């Protein structure tokens, strides 16, 4: 194997690169998501100064939900940094190195879209509560469901990252498999961006609509879930391709 | 810090702790044992509470009974709202049990046990259970072949069939890994921060946030998504539809 004398350095370096990719990209989504609820809360407080405590509480809850995608990224980064690796041999070190980078790519890129999407849900939920404070319970119900489904792409990315990370590294599978592992990470990672943002839109509008007509919340939830399932299907295709790359190449 | 993900193996056949290379089909891990222990603690707690408070219900409720009635009424309303009056009532016990069980599973990490939801097998098992019930309900309403016909013919006939099947199966993956990922995220962050600050003060607040707050939200989301999956296959009667819009 080429560069076998640097095996440990290469794997350790790839591990650090993967951790950096995971957390660096993964922080983008939450950053672009959490500010939205804060914006809506500021506008809402200026509209209804008497309800500022309620609006602040809703804002904090929505922001806590929005950050879960980045928490996944943090988990993967910590896994990459601290979990003891399997024995590095002259046979498997290129495979190990590429798997580390694939893990980081998958989770890092996958957290972007979901962060933004869940932030959209949070924004409209805060806006709805500030318009109609009596609908707080209904709006939070719809918001939790909507942002949970908008977070699905990040969950798929987490699944792929864990599958790549906990593979059997004992032998040399060939260069194609090394590339396939990075490709699997990139596939679900990039594929999760669009659906993550897209699933945010129906969730956001359902939150606002529930604030306007709380008695129709089940109709909103049903329509929202169907719409989100359809817009999420492209992410599921990416998951399928990733699994094919991981297990059949 | 080095012990995240470190797992010890115990072999039931030989009755001794073994190395990873000697693994057989009778081998269980220390994680399995922890999960089993805390799952049984949760089950015993739930049974005790149910037995102590529910053994003689009174017309004028005591405070604990009032609390239980509040939870049951809340779940009952949700079920009736999404499944219709008759069918909803039959699902109240299942959905309510799922919610209370997951809630306690997430809370039990705060008092020193390992959360059962930290092990992927528990969320995955509950996800498969919920999915199975959803498919069964859909088959009851559309017929056995009607269910597959819908998978086969919508939205484009035959071409979309494999993707429809994968889309259905991905429900299990997403619902269970969301719960697992969030709980594991909390556990990892608590471990890392505890190590950084030397186990002083800060971890308590983190346990409050990740154990209690995130635990509640994720248990609720898991339960509601299971209910929503069941409701997708069920067609409401006209009466229930109208009632849902009026109330």
Can you describe this structure?
The complex is a heterodimer of chains A (249) and B (247). Chain A has 249 residues and is mainly α. Chain A has a single domain, classed as Up-down Bundle (Four Helix Bundle (Hemerythrin (Met), subunit A)), CATH 1.20.120. Chain A has helices spanning 7-47, 52-66, 68-82, 93-131, 136-150, 152-165, 175-191, 193-212, 217-248. The model of chain A has no long low-confidence stretch (mean pLDDT 91). Chain B is mainly α. Chain B has helices at 30-54, 63-83, 85-107, 121-142, 144-153, 161-197, 202-232, 238-246, and strands at 9-11, 16-18, 27-29. Chain B has a three-stranded antiparallel sheet. In chain B, strand 1 and strand 2 (16-18) form a beta hairpin. The A-B interface holds A 64-65, 68, 71-72, 74-75, 78-79, 82-84, 141, 144-145, 148-149, 151-152, 155-156, 158-159, 215-216, 218-219, 221-222, 225-226, 229, 233, 236-237, 239-240 and B 1-2, 4-6, 81-82, 163, 166-167, 170, 173-174, 177-178, 181-182, 184-186, 188-189, 192, 209, 213-214, 217, 220-221, 224-225, 228, 231-232, 244-247.
Low-confidence stretches of chain B: none
Low-confidence region ranges of chain A:
none
State the order of secondary-structure elements of chain B, H for helix, E for strand.
EEEHHHHHHHH
Q: Report how far apart the termini of chain A are.
A: 21 Å
What's the structural domain tally of chain A?
1
> What structural class do helix, strand and pairing data of chain B support?
mainly alpha
Rg of chain B, Å, rounded: 22 Å
Q: Provide the CATH top-level class of chain A.
A: Mainly Alpha
Helix content of chain B: over 70%
**Secondary-structure arrangement, i.e. CATH architecture of chain A:** Up-down Bundle
Strand content of chain A: under 5%
Mean pLDDT figure of chain A: 91
Radius of gyration of chain A: 21 Å
């Amino acid at each position: 194997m080429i560069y076998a004398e640097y095996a440990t350095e290469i794997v350790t370096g790839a591990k650090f690169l993967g951790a950096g990719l995971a957390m660096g990209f993964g922080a983008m989504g939450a950053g672009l998501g959490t500010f939205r609820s804060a914006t809506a809360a500021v506008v809402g407080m200026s509209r209804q100064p008497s309800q500022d405590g309620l609006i602040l509480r809703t804002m904090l809850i929505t922001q806590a939900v929005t950050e879960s995608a980045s928490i996944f990224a943090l988990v993967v980064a910590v896994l990459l940094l601290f979990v003891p690796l399997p024995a590095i041999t002259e046979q498997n070190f290129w495979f190990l190195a590429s798997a580390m980078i694939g893990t980081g790519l998958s989770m890092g890129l996958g957290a972007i879209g979901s962060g933004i999407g869940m932030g959209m849900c949070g924004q409209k939920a805060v806006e709805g509560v500030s318009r109609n404070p009596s609908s707080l319970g209904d709006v939070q119900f719809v918001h939790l469901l909507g942002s949970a489904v908008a977070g699905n792409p990040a969950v798929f990315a987490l699944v792929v990252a864990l599958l790549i990370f906990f593979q059997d590294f004992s032998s040399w599978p060939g260069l194609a498999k090394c590339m396939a592992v990075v490709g699997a990470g990139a596939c679900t990672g990039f594929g999760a961006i669009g659906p993550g943002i897209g699933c945010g839109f129906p969730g956001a509008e359902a939150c606002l609509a529930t604030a306007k007509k709380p008695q129709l919340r089940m109709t909103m939830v049903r329509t929202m879930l169907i719409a989100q399932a359809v817009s999420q299907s492209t992410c599921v295709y990416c998951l399928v391709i990733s699994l094919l790359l991981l297990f059949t190449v | 810090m080095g012990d995240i993900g470190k797992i010890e193996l115990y072999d039931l056949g030989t009755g001794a702790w073994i190395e990873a290379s000697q693994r057989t089909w009778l081998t269980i891990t220390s994680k399995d044992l922890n999960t089993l222990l805390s799952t049984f603690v949760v089950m015993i707690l739930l049974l005790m509470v149910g037995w102590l408070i529910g053994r003689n219900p009174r017309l004028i409720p005591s405070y604990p009974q009032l609390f239980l009635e509040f939870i049951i009424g809340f779940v009952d309303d949700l079920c009736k709202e999404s499944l219709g009056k008759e069918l909803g009532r039959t699902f109240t016990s299942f959905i309510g049990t799922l919610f209370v069980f997951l809630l306690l599973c997430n809370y039990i990490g705060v008092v020193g046990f390992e959360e059962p939801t930290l092990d992927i097998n528990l969320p995955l098992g509950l996800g498969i259970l919920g999915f199975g019930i959803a498919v069964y309900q859909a088959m009851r309403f559309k017929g056995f072949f009607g269910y597959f016909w819908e998978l086969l013919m919508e939205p484009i006939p035959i071409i979309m069939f494999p993707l429809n099947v994968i889309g259905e199966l991905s429900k299990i993956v997403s619902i269970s890994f969301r719960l697992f990922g969030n709980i594991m995220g909390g556990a990892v962050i608590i471990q890392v921060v505890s190590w950084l600050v030397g186990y002083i003060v800060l971890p308590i607040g983190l346990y409050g946030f990740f154990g209690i707050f995130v635990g509640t939200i994720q248990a609720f989301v898991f339960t509601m998504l299971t209910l929503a999956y069941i409701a997708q296959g069920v067609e409401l009667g006209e009466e229930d539809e109208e009632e849902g819009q009026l109330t």
